[in-house]
Amino acid sequence: MQEAKKLHAHIIINGFQQQETYLRKLITFFAISNPSSLNYARLIFDQIQHKSSCNPQNSFVLYNQMHRNGRPSVDKYTFPFLLKACSVLGDIRKGEETHYQVVKNGFSGNVFVQNSLIHFYGSNAKITFARSVFDEMSERDVATWTTLVSCYANHGSIETACKLFKEMPEKSVVSFSAMITGCVRKGRFNEALEFFRELQIRGLEPNDSTVMGVISAAANLGSLDTGKWIHSYIRNKKGNRFDSFMNTALIDMYFKCGSIKDAIHVFEGVKEKLVGEWTAMISGMAMHGFGERSVELFENMVELGVKPNAITFVGLLSGCTHAGLVEEGLTYFKRMKSEFGIEPTIEHFGCVVDLLSRAGLVAQAVKFMHNMPMKANAAVWGAILNACRVHKNVEVGELAARWLLREEPWNAAIYMSLLSLYTEANRWDDVATVKREMNEIGSWKSPGCSLVEVNGVSYEFVAGDKSYPPALQVSLQIDRSIKEVKEDYSCWWD
């Protein structure tokens, strides 16, 4: 033991106190050699600034080792670590056994342990058990409420999460972050931004998780003003010291909001570009139809020694699709596995089907689909249906539509595509049949809608709806602007 401590001192003196390769072995030695040295192991662990992930199973190995080495008494810190390991492993049986040990050792009334139990059950979608622990607690702190709110927001009912959030006696930035993240996951992006505004009103400072949630909400709403504001906010707080996740989120947000210039500006400002930033650029350029630029970015990335991942190839293949680069797309698909060792997934196969279909090579796309190592999903059949509608291939389109309707009989968009196919082919009896089927199941296409952002506020417009006053004003202004442009154009033409 003394020799190990001398070695630890030697590591510190020589400036290697953050070299996890060395420290991991020291921690393991102190943790399993003697029960009395566990505290020393924990001290070393706490001094590591950037901890990498480890095998959660080792928690149970050390717990059993504790018992074999004289069974030291457990305390309120023992079981939360074990329950955290169970959450990461997704091991319900071990978690339930740990819960039994909690009760057996008299810690079922400890708020710290109970919070860990709520987190364990909630993270494994056992919401009823998590709520049961919560209801039985005689004492609750802000972490208790936040943990349960997170459970409902991420794995249960967002409405229940909102109700619990309103009942919270005290709210923290973590609880706001839980609601923002939960709303984003459920596609309730406007509500996510409302929670963020409330957080600001309360004078709370958002953490990285909150910021990432708001960036995602702004991206999905196409709210450029909000996106720019949050970018400016974090730049003031962090300077330009963003990690790769933040850079990637910002690039993605700007592309989704239609500001290619801002996306490029963020990308070019990153000194050490990792695969996330490159992938966001490749996907963003593809999204806006600049397929050649996606290919160029990919080749630059590879040339600089950055290894692409599976998501990179989804963006790259999408770029090839939008640019009509069929041969290039097929070549990249083959290089995925042969050169980069990435096993294609259904998303990659779907991209190739879409690539071939959009190029009018419908027969080749169908053949490729039938040769896939997995069963085609709705996205793959949908790509074929859309191509058949464009290229007027009624026979294959009818086959694709009928397959899709077996899976999604409520989906009006499929019926509309089928109607378009039959109408183009002058098959009026079939048109009448499809309309009759739609009437029987009550499936009609929802009215189109779009979002327009004015002074930082997003307005939703539904086709034919003039009932919402602010939206109506904006709509009238757009109508006036279009009329003015037409008049100016007419004068210029004359």
TrEMBL record:
Keyword set, alphabetical order: Repeat
Superkingdom assignment: Eukaryota
Gene Ontology terms for molecular function: RNA binding
Keyword field contains Repeat: yes
Signal peptide bounds: none
Record-linked PANTHER family: PENTACOTRIPEPTIDE-REPEAT REGION OF PRORP DOMAIN-CONTAINING PROTEIN (PTHR47926:SF537), PENTATRICOPEPTIDE REPEAT-CONTAINING PROTEIN (PTHR47926)
Protein name listed in UniProt: Pentatricopeptide repeat-containing protein
